[in-house]
Design a protein that fits this description.
Blueprint (H helix, E strand, L loop, with lengths): L8 H6 L4 E4 L11 E4 L3 E12 L5 H6 L5 H9 L11 E9 L16 H17 L6 H10 L5 H7 L4 H13 L3 E3 L4 E3 L1 H16 L2
Antiparallel strand pairs: 1-4, 2-3, 3-4, 5-6
Helix pairs in contact: 6-7
Amino acid sequence: MLLFQGRFHQGLVSGEVTLTFRCWPKARVKPGSRYRCHPIGVLVVDAVERVRVAKITDREARRAGFSDRRALLNYLQGFSETPLSGSAEVIKVTLHYGGDGDFAGNAGDADLTTEECGRISTQLARMDSSSRTGPWTGETLSLIENHPRTAASRLASMVKRDTQPFKADVVKLKKLGLTQSFEIGYDLTPRGRAFLDRLRGRSAGNR
């Protein structure tokens, strides 16, 4: 988990906040990893480096959600046991918002076992069989894969469905860890992509 105060949440989701500075003795996050940030969802770490306080610029401070460098340093001082002189070092983390999917997690979430894949397939089959409109899970997953971050209303119109029932069905896929929501539209999680790849590989092998 990567913690942020509530005042930074909107900027993280909108993309205005793409940096954070931490008074850690050593880095606690890794580039390429994804971390939950309650309650907004998932943050993806792009880069991690140790920098001297003197090198931090006003522009970087604004990217971290502060008005200027001084405001950032005053904030950081509250987390440091010693005065933050120019020669002091902090950890600079470059990141971006990765959606609000609960299962977006680390790359390891994409390593589905045969048992997990079978369990998901069974759950999707049940959803299809109980639907009044007929099978929809495979179509919806493929639709989101081919049209990521597209408004739900547009996606629903592509498959000739009403928006609200369509969104309710996507929530069901999200609960299985297959999709994640963004400010606009959806995308597959690593788990969702791995599941579709596994299914397609299985189908190809049966030809």
